[in-house]
Amino acid sequence: MSRTPDRPPAPLSPEQQETWFAYMRVMLRLGYEMNRQLQTDSELSLPDYDVLNALADSPDGRLQLTALATRLAWERSRLSHHLQRMSARGLVERSPSATDRRATDAVLTAAGRAALAEATPGHADLVRRMFFDGLDPALLPPLRAALEQVHEQVLTHGTLPRPGQPQRRLPGLAAAD
């Protein structure tokens, strides 16, 4: 349990409840739409895309399984099963860790990099249409600040270690690319 035993949990205020429900509606529906678009356009699932993206963001396209699980906020067993399926499709490989031979790295293959590059423009277009096009541009800085504050709270009070920092942006997601 994450609360202190000597203090009962405080209820959410009405504004907090409505904000939380709004977030949940967006998160659940957007996740569905992103998964559907990726499967239709590129035969990748959203979890596939998340793994490929995390690996592409890492030095040499590789991460130790523990670090990858932390970055994705997945259980190690879920990651292992998912990597097995992705390996069978040639998108990733497992190899002894480049830094610790007792550990295993997930490695982005050329086919995985190509699949990610092919999927990214359509994914970015969907994100733009579904998330940004209906949003007043003046709300972007405060929304980003709010999301970064929430993320910091999750990292500070959550149970997973802090993930490593991404190394780069993916081509096609940024307007300058």
Automatic annotation (TrEMBL):
A Pfam family recorded for this sequence: MarR_2
InterPro entries with a match to the protein in the record: HTH_MarR-typ (IPR000835), MarR/SlyA-like (IPR039422), WH-like_DNA-bd_sf (IPR036388), WH_DNA-bd_sf (IPR036390)
Region ranges (Disordered): 157-177
Gene Ontology MF annotations: DNA-binding transcription factor activity
GO biological process: response to stress
Residues of the HTH marR-type domain: 16-152
Biased amino acid composition, Low complexity: 160-177
Coiled coil start-end: none
Superkingdom of origin: Bacteria
Protein name: Transcriptional regulator, MarR family
